[in-house]
Specification:
The chain is of the alpha+beta class. About 40% of the residues lie in helices and about 20% in strands.
């Protein structure tokens, strides 16, 4: 539920010409810019709640210090109170919240933000259903060392709870609480289907890799008022963080087969890997058929999931064709 506050408006309900009064998380900040034809500064933000995001443009006065004071009063992840107007912006080809300094309001909020519904999330029953699928897939793995590895992760209650509620991205695909669980199950189901069509695929290995390929996202992202990337996520990335987590648990399993360990390394480290083709070369950093099937299953679900989110954003628009400027993409809704 969205917190009951006077004038609180959900992002998805905003329309051109609406007056906005509400509390939103700062998703992204851009550096202030000078006006072209007069003195002063303006800056742009991305703000959001659990129902979506929108661009905000703050038009400052000639007093640059005053504008910089507003800009520096909050950071990415802060909650701000917004009072302004919704307008259609031809430069972004979409709705924008417009704030004029001295007339409207933009200020940081430090108390009561815990009660605000600011981060998109799957419904609790959807998370429960996906968790049941997760354990069905684990139970279907018959290879004992691989099953022990999966149990080393998912039998740990703190890990399981964190995994169930982790996002898969900040923006494009499955970028909501529970998104990593949903993406993982989708990838495992695609892998399982392909394993029935290609007998050379070691199904147990493929399923294990699919269920573990994004565990590093628990350390790559954190959820506060927004989905944010951690410092180690920026420096290291979830593939290497995930392998560290797998390696730590492998050390607890006596006599884990070396070949299986190397195949898991290939799958987790290289799940974003791809073929590079030219007239002279045909090289790849995917060394096993299980790594290949995981890579393409992961890529397919990310792309389809991302496109589905774009369609959801466009649901309330009247036109059949909708342009998405951040991806330079036109999509057909119907």
């Amino acid at each position: 539920m969205v917190a009951e506050r006077p004038g609180m408006m959900r992002i998805k309900d905003l329309k051109e010409g609406y007056e906005v009064r509400g509390f939103y998380a700062v998703r992204q900040k851009e550096l202030p810019r000078n006006y072209r034809n007069k003195s002063g500064l303006w800056f742009q933000l991305r703000i959001g709640d659990s129902t979506g995001d929108i661009t905000l443009k703050f038009w400052g006065s000639e007093d640059e210090d005053r504008t910089m004071g507003v800009y520096n009063s909050f950071t990415t992840g802060s909650v701000v109170y917004v009072q302004g107007m919704v307008a259609f912006d031809k430069y972004v080809e979409g709705l924008t919240v417009v704030i004029n300094e001295g007339k409207d309001d933009l200020k940081v909020v430090e108390e009561g933000v815990e009660s605000l519904d600011l981060v998109p999330a799957l419904e609790a029953d959807r998370i429960q259903s996906l968790t049941e699928e997760l354990f069905e897939l684990i139970a279907s793995v018959t290879d004992l060392p691989l099953k022990m590895l999966l149990q080393a992760f998912f039998s740990e209650k703190p890990f399981l709870e964190a995994f169930k509620h982790s996002p898969s991205a900040i923006k494009y695909h499955h970028a909501y609480v529970g998104g990593n669980l949903e993406h993982t199950i989708n990838v495992a189901r695609i892998v399982d289907l392909l394993a029935t069509r290609y007998p050379r695929i070691d199904r147990d290995m493929a399923i294990t890799g699919a269920l573990l390929h994004d565990v590093g996202k628990l350390r790559e992202y954190r959820v506060a008022t927004s989905v944010e990337m951690t410092n180690e996520g920026r420096f290291v990335g979830h593939s290497h963080l995930g392998w560290e987590m797998v390696r730590e648990r492998l050390e607890r399993i006596p006599n884990f087969p070396e070949e299986k360990r190397l195949k898991l390394w290939d799958m987790i480290i290289h799940h974003h890997g791809s073929y590079e083709q030219s007239a002279e070369t045909h090289s790849t950093n995917l060394h096993t058929i299980e790594a290949v099937v995981l890579h393409y299953a992961d890529d397919a679900d990310a792309k389809v999931g991302g496109f589905s989110q774009l369609l959801e954003r466009a649901e309330d628009t009247k036109d059949d064709w909708v342009y998405v400027p951040e991806y330079n993409l036109s999509i057909f809704k119907r």
